[in-house]
Amino acid sequence: MKDIIERLNAPTAEERLIALQEFVKAEKECDKPVKREKDANNHIHTIYSFSPYSPTKAAYMAYKTGLTSAGIMDHDSLSGSEEFKKACKILGLGATCGVEVRVKFDRGFGRLNHPDQLNCFYMAIHGVPAQHIDELNEYLSTYRAHRNRRNAKMCKLISDKYGKFGITLDFKKDVAPLSEALLGGSITERHLLYALAGKFEAKFGRTDALIKFLENDLNLKVSDKIKGYLLDNDNPHFLYDLLGVLKADTAFFYIDADDEMPVAEEIVAKALSLGAIPAYAYLGDVGESVTGDKKAQKFEDDYLPELLQAIKEIGIKAVAYMPTRNTPEQLARVSNLCKENGLFEISGEDVNSPRQKFECAALADDRYSHLIQSTWALIGHEYISTKDGVSAGMFSKETMARIPDLQERIKEFANIGRNSIK
Fold first, then answer.
1. Could you point out which of 120, 126, 211, 370 has its C-alpha 20 to 30 Å from the C-alpha of 378?
2. What gap in Å lies between CA 234 and CA 160, rounded to an integer?
3. d(CA 178, CA 195)
4. Which residues contact 261 (CB under 8 A, 6 or more apart)?
């Protein structure tokens, strides 16, 4: 069985899906996971952006966690969608596919949900009907190309800083091969840091010399817990752990994104024309990070009511948020504002490293049970708008005229979603 699991990350989608079929045949009844009916995750990254998981492995991880549905959300790419849907079907999971993009939005708010750049925000495009995935993916290919030109420039800045230590980073040689760019995947800043982590390991190994270099030469903080990880020769997640340390200092190489970002109004209109659901990805001010991976920083909380009005005006239909990353007070506020503005609420935990969990334990709290219903509504939207066309989707003119009340629409589409996997 171990060999089968390893092949879920095989080089090709065909090999991975064959391995998954073998897993299902070999799995014993007593080994099947306990289902987590009060859980959902619609924001899982795969190797088509940055992640240790192929689309097949991501579906498997969701299944083994006990989830009854799963959703992928790669940066600037939908190239893993077909494989993911096939994997979820093999496992009997509800499935939804989306894409995460950065968009230009200069309305005087300044910092929104992007830690490194003003007047732009991360947008999640959810529930893309299968017949329009290729069209949206092709539309995004131009922005992936622009992103790679900026990536190459950032590699030059990294080399300028670390060259004196004998460490350089070449985009084509060191970074691009770590990605699925040749198959339509994107290359993110995390790829650069992962490649840099590999350079550090090659130079210092998993030794005290590495720790001293990080702390004394780079002035980075390394907790005792992380030191233990970095000195463990058997640690399979070493490069991800080191990436987490390096992530604290990116300002020296970060170049503001420009050409790689579509204008918000433009991509919202594109998403709606294809029957998808554009969503603002709420981050919220970070005080003491609930998950420990964010530094204290102000984001959109001071002007959230005005922001939600502004995004609603350009056609955004939903707000996506991550329950474990915010305080109960933040969650209550954003949920109430969504209801006031008639915005669909979508949840998902951003998974892109092997130490992150696939479950969202917060959803077991009855205060967030509506997010389970919305997950199934999202699955129902994607299923029916694939089967019957975009006019059958949740936010089509026809559907909104037939069921003007959003909560009633969510209820109907959730039933469609649940029935779609029976």
1. 120
2. 32
3. 8
4. 101, 102, 103, 104, 120, 143
